Amino acid sequence: MRCPKCGGANEAGSRFCGVCGASLAVARPVTPAAPAPVRVYCQRCGTPNPAGSKFCEGCGSAMGAPAAQPATPAGAVPAKPAAGKPPGALWVLPVLFGWLGGIIAWAAATGTNPSTARKMLALGFLVTLIWVGVVIVLDMAESGFSFSDFSFE
User: Which of 81, 120, 132, 153 has its CA 20 to 30 A from that of 31?
Assistant: First the structure.
C-alpha cells in the first residue's frame, strides 16, 4: 500500500508508513512489495518492519537503531520480543515489608517491567496503610474507646 502523505511503499496491513510515520488508515491497498530479506523489529511493540524503516508500521514510533533479525519463513509467525518479567518472588517483598518492601521491589523490577514495578510499589503502600489501620483499631479497642461516649446533639 502507498502512503497518502509521502507516496512511500508499505506492506499490506500496515497501519503507519515506514518512511514518514503517517497513518495509513485512508490509504488504498496496492500489490504488496516483495518481502525484504532482513527484518528489523520495533523496540516498542515488536512489530517486524522492512530494513531501513524510519518509523514502525505497527505503532508509528521512531525505529532508532534496533537489532536486525533474519526474515521468518513464509507462513511462520515471528516471535515477539519478550517485554521482560520480574521474578515472582519480588511480590513477596511488599506484602511482608510494606512500603519499604514496595520500594525495594519497585527498584528491582523497574528495568524489566515499569508497569509491574508501579503495582508492587502501590501494593507496599497499601499493605502499610492496612497495618496502620489495624494497629489503630486494636489500640482503640484495648484502651476501651467507644463511640457511645460522645454526644452529637
Answer: 81
Could you tell me how far CA 58 lies from the centroid of its own chain?
15
Q: How far apart are CA 108 and CA 51, in angstroms?
A: 34
Amino acid identity of 129? L
7: left (phi over 0), alpha (psi -120 to 50) or beta: left
Helices (H), 36-113: 92-109
Q: Which residues of 60-82 are buried (b: 16+ CB within 10 A; e: fewer)?
A: beebeebeeeebeeeeeeeeeee
Radius of gyration of the chain (CA): 27
Q: What residue ranges do the domains of the chain occupy?
A: 1-79, 88-144
Q: How does pLDDT run along the chain (153 residues), one tens digit per residue?
A: 788 888 888 888 888 888 888 888 754 555 666 654 577 888 878 788 888 888 888 888 888 754 445 555 555 555 544 556 667 777 788 888 888 888 888 888 888 788 888 888 889 899 999 999 999 888 888 888 777 766 666
Q: Which three cell numbers stand for residue 121?
A: 510499589
